[in-house]
Amino acid sequence: MTTLRYCTSFDTSHTWAAIMNLMPTLPLTPDELLTTTRSVRKRLDLTRPVPLELIRECLEVALQAPSASNRQGWQWMVITDESIRRVIGDYYRQAVESYLKSPRSATALFADDPERNAVQRRVGESVAYLGEHMGDVPVLVIPCISAPNLRAGSQAGLWGSLLPAAWSYMLAARARGLGTAWTTLHMRYEKEISELLGIPADIRHGALIPTAYYLGDTFKPAPRQPGRRPPHQHLVKTPTCQRWWSLEQPQTLTTR
Ligand SMILES: Cc1cc2nc3c(=O)[nH]c(=O)nc-3n(C[C@H](O)[C@H](O)[C@H](O)COP(=O)(O)O)c2cc1C
User: Fold this and answer.
1) Are residues 189 and 237 in the same domain?
2) Does residue 158 have a pLDDT over 60?
3) DSSP line for the chain
4) Fewest CB atoms within 10 A around its CB: which of 57, 97, 149, 169?
5) Are 165 and 256 part of one and the same domain?
6) What is the residue range of 233's domain?
7) Atom 5 in ligand 1: which residue has the minimum CA distance?
């Protein structure tokens, strides 16, 4: 049985109501869902199979995302075949090895800020772990979109027609007890992976999303920068009125 799916739409016999009844979701508020959908790497359960119906359900949710002109030009590769996962995993491992040695590596960032660099080092360790295990993750999802040319002027409309759906997929997965991680390092081998999967050259990848049940109980919101930096680093210049708007004090407008 082939377990490689190249999906643009799903069997319409799955009505929305029927699908949504298949798998109960976790009791999370919208804000809890949005703030606890973490990049799961070390806590991916590499041994527990994930039912394809559950993936289908997450993708049905994803297809509710917006797309330019309502084109819905997204396509989804859902890869469960072990031998194919291993090949993708090998490409991913090579990409991670190269990334971790580079100055753009998470570990190398913010070297002058010990507190922040400590977080970055943990991210780097986690990235390295996934680099070793991408091929072991039971389901790999590659959201794709037709892009015969990647002209500068069309980027926002193009990726804006795919990436919100990909994030919705990850949120839907989290709501169903699955862990995911947004990854892009495989893009270095996008062409090779497309050839492996039979994806035409004009169809481009948006991400590679490992998907598995997760180990442990739950996830917490992550510390983010805006609360810790001095206010002047969070000012937004509005082009029309030449003012600065502090994100930390949104009521206060000060002239430049
Ligand atoms: C555009 C983009 C590309 C990313 N690429 C990778 C990647 O290739 N590998 C990886 O392990 N994580 C990748 N990440 C995940 C980030 O490292 C992660 O979002 C960040 O460390 C914050 O952690 P959190 O998602 O748990 O809040 C990527 C995230 C984004 C938005």
Assistant:
1) no
2) yes
3) ---EEEESS--TTS-HHHHHHHSPPP---HHHHHHS--B-STTB-SSS---HHHHHHHHHHHTTS--GGG---EEEEEE--HHHHHHHHHHHHHHHHHHHHSTTSGGGTTTT-HHHHHHHHHHHHHHHHHHHHGGGSSEEEEEEEE-S---GGGHHHHHTTTHHHHHHHHHHHHHTTEEE--B-GGGGGHHHHHHHHT--TTEEE--BEEEEEBSSS---PPP-GGGTS-GGGGEEEETTTTEEEESSSTT-EEE-
4) 149
5) no
6) 225-256
7) 183
Q: Are residues 11 and 104 in the same domain?
A: yes
% of the chain at pLDDT higher than 90: 71
In a shared domain, residues 157 and 233? no
Nearest atom of ligand 1 to the alpha carbon of 126:
11
pLDDT for 247 beyond 90: no
Residue nearest to atom 1 of ligand 1 (CA): 184
Q: What digits encode the pLDDT tens for the residues 29-54?
A: 999 999 999 999 999 999 999 999 99
Give the global pTM.
Answer: 0.87
